[in-house]
């Protein structure tokens, strides 16, 4: 379709704008899916009403009640009621309390597909890049305009190529790769840019979601994992031939990570790019461990935690909160015994949804408390008290930390006696 | 006379408005009073209309929540000058019609407590200090956004023209 080689971001935006566009240009594009979460639904509806507009393509608009689910107060319940009623009145999809986290649910429901443009009212909408969809987060005004018109405007981003080679060592996960990528790029290293991750046929769909999810923590507009080998075909996706970057496409910069050199990583308070090897932080006493969120609440994440915790107990002074990313994840983890293993270890289970990630309910932190979380942000005050400290890690490291009651590697447990 | 309030690098959306104080948690009328609740307790009450916030790198990183810039709008902030802005927040600021200027030099030059006058359209900033008066020119917003800013906000622009800034009429559909 074009003469000049294009990055994957340029290709997707060209396809949906009807003509070839390149980094730096302004594109007005057709949007394939608009996702609205409970915490912003009221604002989006208010803007739509202000515009005297309704969703142009209701089947391309999804409401998800996940940020404070179930409701924690009357005002939250009222906001969710309005979202529910609006969706019903206008023929939009609604994923109600307990179905799960927006990004997880949209992927499960196939509402993000290779080559699509998905706009979400949540910054971690970069997650859709796991299946080679251009996913990006926007605020209420942009989301309302996209729902009303079926389109949006975007500056076509420059792209950063992240090239992954080698094989991960045991105990090292996609989360560690993503944290290393953020360390290398910095929290604003990819601002206004698309991160294009070349991972070959490494990583499952869920692991790709973790990689794409965290791209926004380097400031990126989108995080696209290039389809490789058979890995996504195995999930039943149909890949149009054009959904690959062209050889010779122009990148702003290239970053290489040799996976074989990585050790488990952890972000220390209170910026995501404050990344260390877990071994440097080992031994710090922890009050709460949280396994869940759009970053790491999937079945494979619960499996990783269960492998570490099987036959062990969470330390007496530590709480372990586990919130599956969706009802589908919860059901599968129940059927295969994972949840039983985790509950027997002393975990507390929450309703599928975002949980305490943004400090609104279900496990907020007291002043001075320390939490190890599998989420994606450790900002000051994010999960409760302003002086609580949040460390970000993989599910395996989080589980080992819960068992030891202090920051630990899974390998540390092998030396510790079973409870 | 509007004043300058100075911040450091990486002021995130939770710093601007902690998520737990979103309007649907605490009410439309009061949520803006929690602006900077963790970062600079008490500041929201001191901020005056037209005041200018000055930040370092990556102002507004974090959430897509429009409540963070909305709180600043409700507090009457006259504009933000920073070394750089995070993408989603920058877009939200423009959508709400809050002037945002990237200028490391002028951000470094301005000091907390300076009195200023900012013309959001021209980007002309008049700074008054004990030493006297200084005229500073902020860099203009990107070309394609200028027509939207002329209309007051992107929402106003769309309401009026039923198209997006930079879009050729009839280009799509």
UniProtKB/TrEMBL annotation, chain A:
<dbReference type="InterPro" id="IPR015931">
    <property type="entry name" value="Acnase/IPM_dHydase_lsu_aba_1/3"/>
</dbReference>
<dbReference type="InterPro" id="IPR036008">
    <property type="entry name" value="Aconitase_4Fe-4S_dom"/>
</dbReference>
<comment type="pathway">
    <text>Amino-acid biosynthesis; L-leucine biosynthesis; L-leucine from 3-methyl-2-oxobutanoate: step 2/4.</text>
</comment>
<dbReference type="InterPro" id="IPR001030">
    <property type="entry name" value="Acoase/IPM_deHydtase_lsu_aba"/>
</dbReference>
<feature type="binding site">
    <location>
        <position position="294"/>
    </location>
    <ligand>
        <name>[4Fe-4S] cluster</name>
    </ligand>
</feature>
<comment type="similarity">
    <text>Belongs to the aconitase/IPM isomerase family. LeuC type 2 subfamily.</text>
</comment>
<keyword id="KW-0100">Branched-chain amino acid biosynthesis</keyword>
<dbReference type="InterPro" id="IPR018136">
    <property type="entry name" value="Aconitase_4Fe-4S_BS"/>
</dbReference>
<dbReference type="GO" id="GO:0003861">
    <property type="term" value="F:3-isopropylmalate dehydratase activity"/>
</dbReference>
<feature type="binding site">
    <location>
        <position position="354"/>
    </location>
    <ligand>
        <name>[4Fe-4S] cluster</name>
    </ligand>
</feature>
<comment type="subunit">
    <text>Heterodimer of LeuC and LeuD.</text>
</comment>
<feature type="binding site">
    <location>
        <position position="357"/>
    </location>
    <ligand>
        <name>[4Fe-4S] cluster</name>
    </ligand>
</feature>
<keyword id="KW-0479">Metal-binding</keyword>
<dbReference type="GO" id="GO:0046872">
    <property type="term" value="F:metal ion binding"/>
</dbReference>
<dbReference type="InterPro" id="IPR011826">
    <property type="entry name" value="HAcnase/IPMdehydase_lsu_prok"/>
</dbReference>
<keyword id="KW-0456">Lyase</keyword>
<keyword id="KW-0432">Leucine biosynthesis</keyword>
<dbReference type="InterPro" id="IPR050067">
    <property type="entry name" value="IPM_dehydratase_rel_enz"/>
</dbReference>
<keyword id="KW-0004">4Fe-4S</keyword>
<keyword id="KW-0411">Iron-sulfur</keyword>
<dbReference type="GO" id="GO:0051539">
    <property type="term" value="F:4 iron, 4 sulfur cluster binding"/>
</dbReference>
<keyword id="KW-0028">Amino-acid biosynthesis</keyword>
UniProtKB/TrEMBL annotation, chain B:
<feature type="domain" description="Aconitase A/isopropylmalate dehydratase small subunit swivel">
    <location>
        <begin position="52"/>
        <end position="98"/>
    </location>
</feature>
<dbReference type="InterPro" id="IPR050075">
    <property type="entry name" value="LeuD"/>
</dbReference>
<protein>
    <submittedName>
        <fullName>Methanogen homoaconitase small subunit</fullName>
        <ecNumber>4.2.1.114</ecNumber>
    </submittedName>
</protein>
<dbReference type="InterPro" id="IPR000573">
    <property type="entry name" value="AconitaseA/IPMdHydase_ssu_swvl"/>
</dbReference>
<dbReference type="Pfam" id="PF00694">
    <property type="entry name" value="Aconitase_C"/>
</dbReference>
<keyword id="KW-0456">Lyase</keyword>
<dbReference type="InterPro" id="IPR011827">
    <property type="entry name" value="LeuD_type2/HacB/DmdB"/>
</dbReference>
<dbReference type="InterPro" id="IPR015928">
    <property type="entry name" value="Aconitase/3IPM_dehydase_swvl"/>
</dbReference>
<dbReference type="GO" id="GO:0016836">
    <property type="term" value="F:hydro-lyase activity"/>
</dbReference>
């Amino acid at each position: 379709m074009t003469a000049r080689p294009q990055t994957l971001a340029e290709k997707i935006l060209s396809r949906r704008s009807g003509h070839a566009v390149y980094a730096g240009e302004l594109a007005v594009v057709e949007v394939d899916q608009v996702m609205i979460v409970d915490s912003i639904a009221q604002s989006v509806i208010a803007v739509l009403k202000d515009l005297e507009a309704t969703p142009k393509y209701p089947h391309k608009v999804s409401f998800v009640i996940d940020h404070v689910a179930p409701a924690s107060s009357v005002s939250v319940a009222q906001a969710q009621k309005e979202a529910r009623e609006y969706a019903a009145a206008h023929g939009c999809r609604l994923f109600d309390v307990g179905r799960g986290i927006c990004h997880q649910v949209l992927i499960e429901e196939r509402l993000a597909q290779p080559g699509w443009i998905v706009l979400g009212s949540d910054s971690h909408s970069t997650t859709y890049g796991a299946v080679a969809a251009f996913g990006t987060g926007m605020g209420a005004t942009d989301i309302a305009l996209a729902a009303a018109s079926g389109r949006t405007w975007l500056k076509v981003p420059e792209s950063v190529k992240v090239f992954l080679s080698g094989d991960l060592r045991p105990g090292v996960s996609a989360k560690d790769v993503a944290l290393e990528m953020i360390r290398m790029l910095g929290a604003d290293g990819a601002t206004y840019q698309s991160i294009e991750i070349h991972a070959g046929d490494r990583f499952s769909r869920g692991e790709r979601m973790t990689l794409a999810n965290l791209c926004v923590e380097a400031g990126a507009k989108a995080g696209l994992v290039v389809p490789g080998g058979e890995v996504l075909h195995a999930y039943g996706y149909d890949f149009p031939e054009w959904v690959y970057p062209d050889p010779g496409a122009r990148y702003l910069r290239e970053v290489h990570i040799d996976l074989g050199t990585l050790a488990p990583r952890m972000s220390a308070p209170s910026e995501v790019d404050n990344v260390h090897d877990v071994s440097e932080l080992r031994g710090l006493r922890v009050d709460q461990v949280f396994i869940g969120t759009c970053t790491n609440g999937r079945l494979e994440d619960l499996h990783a935690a269960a492998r570490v915790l099987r036959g062990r107990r969470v330390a007496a002074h530590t709480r372990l909160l586990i919130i599956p990313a969706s009802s589908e994840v919860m059901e599968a983890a129940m059927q295969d015994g994972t949840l039983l293993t985790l509950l027997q270890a002393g975990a507390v289970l929450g309703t599928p949804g975002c949980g305490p990630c943004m400090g609104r309910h279900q496990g907020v932190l007291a002043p001075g408390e320390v939490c190890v979380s599998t989420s994606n942000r450790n900002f000051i005050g994010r999960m409760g008290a302003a002086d609580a400290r949040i460390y970000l890690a993989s599910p395996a490291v989080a589980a080992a930390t819960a068992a030891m009651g202090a920051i630990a590697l899974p390998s540390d447990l092998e030396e510790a006696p079973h409870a | 006379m509007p004043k300058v309030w100075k911040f450091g690098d990486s002021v995130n959306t939770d710093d601007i408005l902690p998520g737990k104080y979103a309007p649907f948690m605490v009410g439309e009328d009061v949520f803006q009073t929690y602006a900077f609740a963790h970062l600079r307790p008490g500041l929201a009450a001191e901020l005056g209309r037209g005041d200018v916030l000055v930040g370092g790198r990556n102002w507004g990183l974090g959430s897509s929540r429009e409540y963070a810039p909305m709180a600043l709008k409700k507090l009457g902030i006259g504009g933000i000058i920073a070394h750089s802005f995070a993408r989603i927040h920058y877009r939200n600021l423009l959508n709400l019609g809050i002037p945002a200027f990237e200028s490391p030099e002028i951000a470094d030059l301005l000091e907390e407590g300076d009195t200023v006058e900012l013309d959001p359209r021209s980007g002309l900033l008049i700074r008054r200090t004990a030493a006297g008066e200084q005229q500073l020119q902020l860099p203009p917003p990107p070309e394609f956004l200028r027509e939207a800013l002329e209309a007051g906000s992107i929402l106003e622009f769309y309401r009026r023209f039923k198209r997006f800034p930079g879009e050729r009429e009839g280009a799509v559909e």
